[in-house]
Structure formats: C-alpha cells, structure tokens
C-alpha cells in the first residue's frame, strides 16, 4: 500500500515512477491488481502462489524508489484466534513459531497479545495473523506449542471501525465527526495510557456519550454500539483449508 506524505502527492506519478524502476519479472511476480484503498491510498495486490513473500520484496523495492515521498506498507487481511491451554514455561517465540508453521505464514505477519492466566493454572493468548493462516490452524482444533497441545478458537470477525471517533461503519479517512479519541485508552476511555497497561474497570466511551450503560469494553459482546453480524467459521472438514489467493488488507490498529 502506498500512502502519500504530502497533500499534493500524485499517485499516478508514483505508479509511473515505480513501473519505470522496478521489474516485476525479476521479482517473479506474474500478476498484480492496482486499486484505491478505502483510506485513499494506492493498493497493489500481488496475486497467486507465494504472494506474501513476493509482496514483501515488492514493498522493499517501492521503499527504495519512493523514499521520503510516500509511506509503503504491506497490509495483510487479518484473522484472529485464541490459543487455550498454554504452559507457564511457554515463550512468545514458541507461540509465534507454532502459528507460523501450522498456518504457513510469515513470522512478521503475526501479532500476540499478553499471555493471560486461567483459573485452571494454564494460560491463554490472543493471536492475530493472516486470515488464511487463522482458518488453517483453527481447522486443526489443537496445535503443538512447545511440549504441549493447545486448543485453537477462531474469533469473530471485527467490524469496520474508525479509530478517530471510535464509531463503527466507516474509516478515519472519511470520518464526519469532530471527536478525536486517538489518544485515549480503548478499555477505560481515559487518556495517557493504552489498553494493555490499563487496570481500570472497562468503560465504553461511545455508550457513555450516547447515554447508555457503559460498564463494558467498546465492541465487546455486551456493547450495543456495534452489531457484529458477520462471523468467520472454520472449514471443519479440512486441515488444509486454503487461505486467500492474495495477500493484502489493513494496517494494525489498537494495542490490546
């Protein structure tokens, strides 16, 4: 994804410059698709097998060519799973290695939340990874992490959310609100810290603003501010469920 650093940035000129400087043949890229992203940026999708690795190489080349003119990222369609039953000796490196291996995805595309204790003495962790990888490992039911087998739960798909006003159904680029909660904690709504470091009771800033009960986290199952109707379901009959043929999507958002 190419995002201009200036208001007068020309995406057409940037694409012409990239096409004149980068050989897709040398990168073994046979097919691409160029389109506008929801935030106005230019999205170049690398199609076919090995798309993730090839897109990563193309990103590096685009950074060399465009330099300070634009920000170049390799967004990936994300899915989320929860691993349940980890031992306290399990390291984050072991978890990432297992997810990468079972999910057949790049380590750089995996994000972990904090490892939380459960009542039975074992531990659980939230994992974000490419959607195809999330479905793939969920279809196993259980995967090996270190010396133990852990359960994999595929989580609900998150709705589109603006990270300026925190409301759902649109992105920051097209936000009509004057409110900007970008510096607030996603858990309690106060400023000065992030949700990962928050020990305060949950308080939904949107429900509080709208006059509803707000003793819950924004976007949770208790939150009426969003109606989560789309759910991702694993294909239970196949442990080799294919992921998307293209490797593209959105940037990381909140630090949970």
Automatic annotation (TrEMBL):
SMART domains: ZnF_C2HC. InterPro entries: Znf_CCHC, Znf_CCHC_sf. The keyword Metal-binding applies. SUPFAM superfamilies: Retrovirus zinc finger-like domains. Residues 237-256 are annotated as: Disordered. The keyword Zinc-finger applies. This is Gag-pol polyprotein.
